[in-house]
Specification:
Distance between the termini: 54 Å
Helix content: over 70%
CATH architecture: Orthogonal Bundle
CATH superfamily: Tetracycline Repressor, domain 2
CATH class: Mainly Alpha
Shape: elongated
Radius of gyration: 18 Å
Largest sheet: none
CATH topology: Tetracycline Repressor, domain 2
Order of helices and strands: HHHHHHHH
Structural class: mainly alpha
Number of strands: 0
Number of helices: 8
Number of domains: 1
Length: about 170
């Protein structure tokens, strides 16, 4: 709270009055972090000039670069999920809701790829969407542990291959 007070120029009591306390402030910050992940994904997978499959490929490439960079994305969302969700119901619920929103974005793009005959209609889009959430969050954790862009690109290429299965 001291750091936050210094950074904002607000007194601790003003911060507590605005946000209700440390826990409430943490949960708001967690929601914002999760929403930023969903927004980035929504923007990267949005329909445009590129095909749905190409949008997913570009998204995975962008994640490999970001997660392997010297200043990687600092994700309260992923860190809180890994460190707290198993023992904090509110964190688990917030993480679960955010993961569902991420899955929705992947599923929508995969369904577009199926409609464009880039991905087999016989594959389950929701299962693949869940798989992509797991893969991309794993890429984030590995990148934070020092995995390089080439390693993360390889993971992305392998994940993309799941979409091309017969």
């Amino acid at each position: 709270m001291d750091d936050l007070s210094r950074a904002t120029g607000l007194g601790k009591q003003s911060i507590y009055n605005a946000f209700g306390g440390k826990r409430d402030l943490f949960l708001l910050a967690l929601e914002r972090s999760a929403s930023e992940h969903v927004l980035r994904l929504t923007e990267q997978l949005a329909p445009g000039a590129a095909s749905p499959l190409e949008r997913i490929r570009a998204h995975l490439e962008a994640l490999a670069r970001v997660f392997a960079s010297e200043v990687p994305l600092d994700s309260l969302f992923t860190k809180a999920t890994v460190e707290l969700a198993d023992r904090d119901t509110e964190v688990a619920e917030a993480a679960s809701a955010a993961y569902r929103r991420l899955e929705d974005q992947y599923a929508d793009c995969i369904e577009q790829a199926q409609a464009a005959h880039e991905v087999s209609a016989g594959l389950d889009a929701r299962t693949l969407a869940t798989y992509f959430v797991a893969v991309t969050r794993g890429m984030e954790v590995l990148g934070g542990a020092g995995a390089g862009a080439d390693v993360l690109r390889g993971i992305g290429r392998t994940a993309l291959a799941a979409l091309l299965a017969p």
